[in-house]
Design brief:
Mean pLDDT: 85
Helix content: over 70%
Low-confidence stretches: 234-243
Structural class: mainly alpha
Number of domains: 1
Shape: globular
Distance between the termini: 52 Å
Strand content: under 5%
Radius of gyration: 19 Å
Largest sheet: none
Order of helices and strands: HHHHHHHHHHHHHHHH
Number of helices: 16
Length: about 325
Amino acid sequence: MWKGLALCAAVTWVGFGLASLTPNSVSPLVFALALGVIVGNLPIARNAQSVEAGLTFSIRWLLRTGIVLFGLSVTLQQVFVLGPQVVVLDLLVIATVMIVGYSLGTRWLKLDPETALLTSAGSAICGAAAILATAATIRAKPAVTAMAVATVVMFGSLAMVVYPALFPLLGWEEGLYGVYIGATVHEVAHVVAAGNAVGADAQANAVVVKLVRVMLLVPFLLILGRWWLKYHGASQGNGEPAGKLTVPWFAFGFIAMVVINSLIALPETLNASLTLIGQIALTMAMAALGYETRFEKLRALGVKPLILGLVLFLLLAVGGIAVTPLIVEV
């Protein structure tokens, strides 16, 4: 096992190094995924059976550990600041994107259910973290997971440029525009960057609204697990026994961390250390996913996931402009 863990650790170390040389909006997860794909497709890696145990451990257990510790980034107090209207807006965004994305993906683009579901979840909730959590719940294939992550990273990065440019054209209050950013932009890092480009009030509201979306990941996974079992459980083909419900226990760990972070004032050093451990765990899991992804599998998926990602990006951007001022008063 140690060889696979050492490989993931090395890729993670390089990923953090590259991220430190770029703007803060670029996550080390992105570099780890890309580097993992490159290393995994080298000729020497084709028959490297000695790393498989470590890769499997990273994809399964380090991934769940990272998501649990991600809960230390959220407090219940942050959720209550803007009131129930924000929860209503976030629920509407998540439900709309998931329904439209899955329907368009499977019926119009003829994508497989896993690809349509993961791409939609990343756009609807919180980018790569949502994709990884969803993939763990339905036991998605590494190539599908990698493609979905690449898609939301691409369009989330585009949002960092487009959203600040739209702000002066709409004539909204800065706080309201921050709510719009938090409700419709993909990654937490993308939200922070886009909000900061608009102003301090926009950034503050954007982060709170985004964190509410992050918390809604837990009920989403619980509902998803039962829905996936009902419609796809009998034909998973991924090693899971047919008809077995995959309970996302790590989601309850995430909630536990949120509650602890809300009720107990953890020492700043401890909180920062645990948050960093969680990020390292997620990055190692991303490196393992990248390593397990082969170019031929990505080519088989084609451009359709990117088309779906673009459609969902436009739905979020345009739909958010129409809906946000109707629901939220700032």
